[in-house]
Specification:
The protein is of the alpha/beta class and 210 residues long. It contains 6 helices and 7 strands. The chain has a 7-stranded mixed sheet, sandwiched between helices.
Length: 210
């Protein structure tokens, strides 16, 4: 994937503020501090485009980024951070479910799991929800450079056991490991969402492989 343009568009705190131009969207989901911002910046090769909140667990908006003027990255709030109120947790769950259930142009949901830790109950619940609602999903195991090859292999096996049915890609935002594989999954999802890849001529040029 060659990135011609990538820009932050808006932070949406409710459904009324979501994008409305009907471009396909790629959603990023995961626990607080799992590395969503780093993954997005790495994929887009734009340092600092997606920013981490100064206080983990506080960001309650869905952040939209327009890529190649053709599709969006939607960065959903992180979940599972312990030092927040029950009310805030419920609000995140309500927002995420409303978005995931209602977006007809959602082409792919990318669920991030820290490769150094086993998926949590919240991770498993989200994965099961995506499967039950027939949402196309990809699991990305972040921070893969922090583990030896042997430990990474065992981690991926554990993730596959607990989160079955979705492709799993080991990723390192530091080294770029897994970047091409993730983009292949995204491109396939975009083509499927667009009825087999019938992009406009302009979009075909911008979405073409680098």
């Amino acid at each position: 994937m060659k990135i011609f343009s990538a820009e932050f568009v808006k932070s949406a705190f409710n459904a009324q503020h979501w994008t409305t131009d009907d471009k396909p969207e790629i959603a990023f989901l995961g626990r607080s501090n799992v590395g969503k911002s780093s993954l997005i910046n790495s994929l887009l090769q734009r340092k600092g485009l997606a920013r981490t909140s100064n206080t983990p667990g506080r960001t309650q908006s869905i952040n939209f980024f327009l890529v190649n003027e053709a599709f969006y990255f939607a960065d959903l709030p992180g979940y599972g951070y312990a030092r927040v109120s029950q009310t805030m947790r419920k609000n995140w769950g309500k927002m995420a479910e409303e978005y995931l259930a209602g977006r007809h142009r959602l082409a792919l949901s990318i669920q991030l799991i820290d490769s150094r830790h086993s998926p949590t109950e919240l991770d498993r619940q989200l994965h099961e929800w995506l499967a039950f609602n027939q949402r196309k999903a990809l699991v990305v195991a972040t921070k893969a450079d922090k583990l030896s090859q042997n430990k990474l292999r065992k981690s991926l096996e554990q993730i596959e056991k607990l989160l079955p049915g979705s492709p799993i890609i080991a990723y390192s935002s530091h080294t770029g490991k897994g970047r091409e594989s993730v983009w292949r999954e995204i491109e396939t999802a975009l083509k499927t969402a667009d009825g087999g890849g019938q992009f406009t001529i302009r979009d075909r040029v911008q979405i073409g492989n680098s």
